Structure to design on (431 residues):
């Protein structure tokens, strides 16, 4: 009897043990399933990435003879529409001057003239209207960013706003020649740029605003008294003598990113739905030499589209840049395109090279934008008609981008009637 009782007890213990294993295994299975289920319901982007191929062109200060004449401007926009472009980036700030009637710039004594077209018109207003009439997007381009001519009105009126190198020098050599740099860490400079940007965004029925590689600072700069004092206050020590010191570079880079966050938010508050576009240099150059961490801007949602300048004279140096990890990452997050050099007055780009570079970008599902309008068909080594025929082959089918939502602007703010204008002054010199 005792033996039977012990056997029953053993069987009951085994059954309890098996039951415990079963319950534990079921719980473990459920626990392992939780991450998978959770991953499937992670928050998704509020809007799908626009997959329409970006086909853009920059309209520069060099293109102003065309844009300032109403008939030539209208014919040019019609030509771009016929070639199936879909986005124009028109210069609004270059050389320390506003390329539109600007109460901000003129009211502060930063320019002594009102920029108008040959017929007395607001060039940016009429260009925006004509572009939209043809079904294209128009994004004003804040070209010079923190860069300014060293002998311009802005530099002369506010010399203390300029930053400097360790040796006291205030200029550097760029594609625009010798330039000075506004101190991106000074509140007065940040306020000026914010006021100018919001003036454009709030006045015109455009589709956004674009910044480029000049919304940055060459790493040799930042040794002016204001920045030295600010860095010393933050870190307890003066900036190192080596401008490439990692901590010193990181501090300046993060400060520029913080300003971009404020500026992007201000744009969205002024005009919800506006596209904040950026066209920087390739990432390694931008980060290490210009303190411009545009990948961080993309990751933080500060920009809505990215156009990476990859201006190369051959295909061999162009193609490797298209497969960089930061390009792939940006492409997964926002519309991404490659800036292609269409040619310069002293160095025309062969049509065959342009076609090959466009094809390489398109094979990787990247959009393209050309720098710049005049070089597309007027500065090439081939006849104009051959260039136009070659461009027509690139974009054989239309690819219309939809205008962002919530871009309503009071009609009176767009191309409002102006008082009779005096004879237009010559445009400020281009870069």
């Amino acid at each position: 009897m005792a033996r039977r009782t012990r056997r029953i007890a053993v069987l009951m213990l085994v059954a309890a043990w098996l039951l415990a294993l079963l319950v534990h295994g079921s719980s473990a299975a459920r626990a392992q399933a939780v991450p998978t289920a959770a991953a499937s319901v992670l928050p998704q982007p509020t809007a799908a990435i626009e997959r329409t191929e970006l086909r853009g062109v920059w309209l520069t200060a060099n293109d102003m003879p065309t844009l300032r004449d109403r008939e030539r401007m209208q014919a040019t926009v019609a030509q771009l529409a016929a070639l199936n472009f879909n986005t124009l980036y028109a210069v609004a700030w270059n050389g320390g001057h506003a390329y539109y009637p600007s109460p901000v710039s003129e009211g502060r004594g930063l320019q002594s003239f009102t920029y108008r077209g040959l017929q007395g018109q607001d060039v940016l207003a009429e260009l925006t209207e004509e572009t939209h009439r043809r079904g294209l997007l128009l994004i004003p381009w804040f070209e010079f960013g923190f860069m300014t001519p060293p002998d311009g009105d802005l530099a002369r009126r506010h010399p203390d706003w300029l930053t400097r190198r360790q040796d006291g020098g205030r200029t550097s050599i760029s594609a625009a020649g010798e330039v000075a740099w506004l101190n991106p860490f000074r509140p007065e400079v940040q306020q000026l740029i914010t006021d100018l940007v919001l003036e454009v965004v709030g006045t015109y029925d455009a589709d956004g605003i674009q910044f480029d590689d000049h919304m940055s600072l060459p790493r040799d700069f930042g040794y002016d008294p204001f920045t030295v004092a600010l860095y010393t206050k933050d870190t307890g020590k003066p900036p190192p003598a080596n401008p490439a010191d990692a901590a010193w570079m990181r501090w300046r880079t993060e400060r520029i990113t913080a300003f971009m966050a404020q500026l992007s938010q201000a744009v969205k508050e002024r005009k919800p739905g506006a596209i904040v576009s950026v066209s920087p240099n390739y990432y390694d150059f931008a980060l290490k030499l210009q303190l411009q961490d545009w990948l961080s801007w993309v990751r933080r949602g500060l920009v809505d589209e990215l156009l990476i300048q990859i201006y190369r004279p051959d295909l061999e140096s162009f193609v490797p840049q298209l497969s960089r990890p930061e390009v792939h990452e940006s492409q997964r997050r926002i519309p991404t395109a490659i800036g292609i050099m269409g040619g310069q007055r002293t160095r025309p780009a062969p049509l065959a090279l342009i076609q090959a570079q466009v094809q390489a970008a398109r094979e990787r599902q990247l959009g393209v934008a050309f720098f710049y309008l005049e070089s597309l068909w007027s500065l090439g080594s081939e006849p104009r008609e051959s260039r136009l025929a070659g461009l027509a082959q690139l974009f054989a089918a239309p690819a219309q981008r939809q205008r962002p939502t919530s871009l309503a602007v009071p009609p009176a703010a767009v191309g409002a009637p102006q008082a009779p204008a005096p004879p237009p002054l010559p445009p400020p010199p281009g870069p």
Remarks:
- The chain has one domain: 51-413.
